[in-house]
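Sample 1 of the test manifest.
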Amino acid sequence: MSIVVVGSVAYDGVETPHGRVDRMLGGAATYISLAASYFSPVKLVAVVGDDFDAADHDFLAGRNIDLSGLERVAGGKTFFWQGVYSADMNDRTTLRTDLNVFADFNPKLPDGYKDSPYLLLGNIQPALQRSVREQMKQTRLAGGDTMNYWIQDYREELLATLKGWDFLLINDSEARMLSGEANLKHAARKIMAMGPNTLVIKRGEYGAMLFHNNQHFVAPGYLLDRVCDPTGAGDCFAGGFLGYLAESGIAPGGGNIDRAALARAVIFGSVMGSFCCEQFGVDRFRTLTRKDIEARFREFKSFTEF
Amino acid sequence: MSIVVVGSVAYDGVETPHGRVDRMLGGAATYISLAASYFSPVKLVAVVGDDFDAADHDFLAGRNIDLSGLERVAGGKTFFWQGVYSADMNDRTTLRTDLNVFADFNPKLPDGYKDSPYLLLGNIQPALQRSVREQMKQTRLAGGDTMNYWIQDYREELLATLKGWDFLLINDSEARMLSGEANLKHAARKIMAMGPNTLVIKRGEYGAMLFHNNQHFVAPGYLLDRVCDPTGAGDCFAGGFLGYLAESGIAPGGGNIDRAALARAVIFGSVMGSFCCEQFGVDRFRTLTRKDIEARFREFKSFTEF
């Protein structure tokens, strides 16, 4: 059951208290695709320049990720982002953003993508997210991510986009901004009235909450021995979340999804986000196995059960 | 199985986004005792002035709380604290602290208290906590709370006190300050080397973590419809936590406590903390029943199970 993933593929320069890497593979769609690929086949839609390394291409292709939708712009350069994290890693400062070829990204789905049952839209301009949604012919579940910039400055466009989504994943401050409600229970109710009947609110190290119809589920974060680099953790959460639902072949009847399946999807999302933080960039996914993922899922059970 | 509770009994003036009360019953020992009293008999040790209302005395006495250790200083006034909460209620500013009779508090246990198997020391000067611990003859479990002030300015005294404790309950920023470790897993290891083999790290709306020997348990916070007044929530957590362990008659063998019992104690602590926030001051405990508590415990199961 394949997932179409749309978003940025980038090079990142990252500095954390544990070290610094000047240039490494990154981007929301990269993280989402890698995490989802442990559960389901992925079809990636993104754009890169001709500086995109063959080794990075091969790494993604080797993880069961279809790259026929990865557009390569001759003479262009790949999106570059550079940032530095605070000592406690709860804040980061952007030092540089070179959109490069990403500035003119206008995602076109290859024909072989349009019948995929699952769609995950990384954080890009809401109008582009909507155009991708409309190119898909028979999705069972479609949704994605957004950010403060679109919530503040592209509100109407975002609301028009959200109407067509089954699920939305955002962090807690964005949920408060989007809804205008400080209380997350009230915020969730307002956001679900905008379209998505499944809402995941990500809370970083504190875990995640899921709302679906009148139910909710709360998962604490995984307690890591060392957070090396949190870049991409939220995207890996999204990839693990939808990856698991796709693997399970979830086909919502009248908008309803089994509560137990959604709860497990949140845990698999948390598992993938936690692995992501253990090494710089996407490095953890060079060695991570499905067996590791299952073991951490069982760990979640053991430290939350009562 | 009775619990001796030591700490402040006070009058509070509190302002939150939901309203303002100029003078109401408060204090750490009050909140701890009320919460614990739903599970086990409580023996309170504290000091008040002769302005202490008969109605407040009767309210506590009516909740199965032994007040023979409540010293009343003639001509003195009860500890008064006044504070105002920020709009999101994650911060509060102290406007006034009149220690009054609490400044000379030197807790003396009535003889009828000294054989209690459980001891919960609210946040007071570490040397006083230690003196109470030494007056007890056969505790099964002793421990308590502390705060940034004692951690920073009374470190040696606090460390000498912690050596005699079985459990410590503190919030996450205090755990980082006490241990000098930003990572909570490392912080827990260092703190447990100071004495307590059970550590609860409270994270406010995000829940709580428990460490015991080499195991840990993480509970998310309860999602309230409305947080009216968070004053006392941490103390109510402590009361529910030890109250449940006392009710269960926990007698650690060689320092070991059953993991399942500790996990349930954390949930009962969370339940009591969440109820506390629903009304101003101690008002929720005027109507709360054990049946309400059991229902919320089951709710915790339903929104965390996967």
